[in-house]
Design goal:
- The complex is a heterodimer.
- Chain A is mostly helical.
- Chain A folds into two domains: about 100 residues, Fumarate Reductase Iron-sulfur Protein, Chain B, domain 2; about 55 residues, no CATH class.
- Chain A has eleven helices and no strands.
- The mean pLDDT of chain B is about 95.
- Chain B has two domains: about 120 residues, Glutathione S-transferase Yfyf (Class Pi), Chain A, domain 2; about 150 residues, Rossmann fold, CATH 3.40.50.11810.
- In chain B, helix 13 links the parallel strand 7 and strand 8.
- Classes of the chains: A mainly alpha, B alpha/beta.
- The interface between A and B is large, with 60 and 60 residues.
Chain lengths: ~180, ~290
């Protein structure tokens, strides 16, 4: 490396400074108080979760960064991120965390908060709608295939009324209704 | 004869009736009584948990409470259903405050979650309650040592404190058919099915990584125990042919289909022709 080399910009390892005025000190408390947040503050940012994640390479915020962002209070950035919805829920990060942080479960909690604030991908709403209206995510198209195999033509044991009645008043119901 | 409450979910009946049929054939041969759980609906999948964890607890606690009335364990052939039900069972056993709230809602329907039964994957029930020795004794046409790559599926294995499932279970079940289990580097990796609704390209990439890893390690067939994983690994092979010009030719069989064939059952009875990547080459590997 030569010392005369002209500097053209900040080193690529630096990211934009965090705007401290926008941090929400309650965010970490919100997540910690949810059922999976007990070990949240045990994270020491070793990034083992990121090493375990099969899709972190195409995320702007890596799993260990998302956990750090929760601890710092970057509420809007986390809840409006695409990353939490792309999480495969494969639990590899959670399995390998040396600090027992329930990383995948915490992302589920983040999505719940995001949903409460109205950030839900359209296709997920469509699935919720199918669940509320039909009691199922997948419908039988070729019932003759079932009959050929000696199976009853309909989904065995399905009751739509039961699931509709239990989901009444839940966030799922509100999200689906709000969509109409 | 062990008796079980069978929870089908919606994916197997809709997309994989061949899995359902093969499971019944094998269960009957092994002396397991499977009774469809009535008055239930879809588990909601991880998608419901993402948007509404309380609603997800309610739906699955209701299913478990219904099954508790008969006293038999729930078995299911779907990793998604298994993951949801098992997760809710674990949650309600560890969070008494949520359990109280859930039971207030269930009481309105004349139900109560007590936590008296277990939720199990059908494969684990076969392994534990029937046993490898008994299963082997029913194998009349063992496979000739053909290399099978197991895709376990994430929600069968993890988190292990919730699922209580050991990979050795499925390995031993495959060996019991006379086949060989192929080791491959990405054995733990996700098939990509869960990300399909929000990022299809990413889902395709994950399936491709997985198939490549299996093929390069010498697998001739793939076995799965989940309709979502099965769909992803089977169907995406057709897409990969079109989009990347890559041919993997790796038939994807639901585990009970393999066991059924090794037990000498007819390929038509287990809907072998419904597997999208032609699965009939497996017939060449049967001996006896």
């Amino acid at each position: 490396m030569t010392e005369t080399e002209e500097k053209t910009g900040p080193p690529v390892t630096l990211i934009d400074p965090i705007d401290m005025t926008k941090l929400d000190a309650n965010f970490r408390r919100d997540i910690s108080s949810m059922p999976n947040g007990e070990e949240l503050s045990a994270c020491f940012a070793c990034s083992t979760c990121t090493a375990a994640c099969p899709i972190a390479n195409q995320w702007n915020y890596k799993p260990h960064q998302l956990i750090r962002m929760i601890l710092l209070g970057m509420r809007d950035e986390v809840l409006s991120s695409k990353e939490i919805w792309e999480c495969l829920t494969c639990f590899q990060c959670q399995e390998r965390c040396p600090q027992n942080v329930r990383v995948t479960d915490i992302f589920f909690d983040c999505k719940n908060l995001a949903a409460e604030e109205g950030y839900v991908p359209e296709n997920i709403i469509a699935l919720a709608k199918s669940l509320v209206e039909k009691g199922q995510l997948y419908e039988i198209i070729n019932d003759w295939e079932r009959e050929d195999l000696g199976l009853e033509p309909e989904v065995p044991g399905l009751s739509i009324e039961g699931i509709q009645s239990i989901l009444k008043g839940t966030r799922t119901h509100k999200l689906v209704e709000g969509d109409e | 004869m062990p008796v079980y409450s069978l929870y089908m979910g919606c994916s197997v009946p809709a997309n994989y009736p061949n899995y359902e049929a093969a499971m019944f054939k094998v269960a009957e041969a092994l002396g397991m009584e499977l009774n469809y759980l009535e008055d239930v609906a879809c588990c909601g999948s991880p998608n419901l948990r993402s948007i509404d964890s309380f609603g997800w607890l309610l739906v699955n606690a209701r299913t478990i409470a219904i099954a508790e009335k008969s006293g038999h364990d729930i078995v299911t052939p779907c990793n998604g259903c298994f993951g949801s039900l098992k997760d809710v069972l674990y949650h309600l056993k560890h969070h008494k405050d949520d359990l109280k709230k859930i039971n207030v809602e269930l009481e309105k329907m004349g139900l109560e979650f007590k936590g008296t039964i277990n939720v199990r994957h059908i494969i684990e029930a076969m392994y534990t309650d029937i046993g490898i020795k008994e299963i082997k004794s029913k194998v009349t046409k063992p496979l000739d040592g053909v290399g099978i790559a197991i895709h376990y599926g994430c929600h069968l294995l993890r988190p292990v404190d919730v699922t209580e499932f050991k990979p050795e279970v499925l390995q031993e079940m495959v060996y019991a058919t006379g086949a060989t289990v192929i080791d491959y580097p990405l054995w733990k990796q996700c098939c990509g099915a869960t990300v399909l609704p929000v990022n299809e390209q990413l889902a395709i990439r994950l399936a491709r990584d997985k198939l490549k890893s299996m093929k390069e390690s010498g697998a001739v067939f793939i076995t799965v125990v989940c309709p979502a994983c099965g769909n992803q690994l089977d169907l995406q092979q057709l897409g990969l042919k079109d989009s990347y010009g890559e041919v993997y030719d790796l038939p994807v069989l639901l585990y009970p289909q393999i066991l059924a064939l090794a037990m000498g059952m007819d390929e038509e009875d287990i809907g072998l022709s419904m597997n999208r990547v032609p699965a009939d080459p497996i017939l060449d590997h049967l001996s006896g």
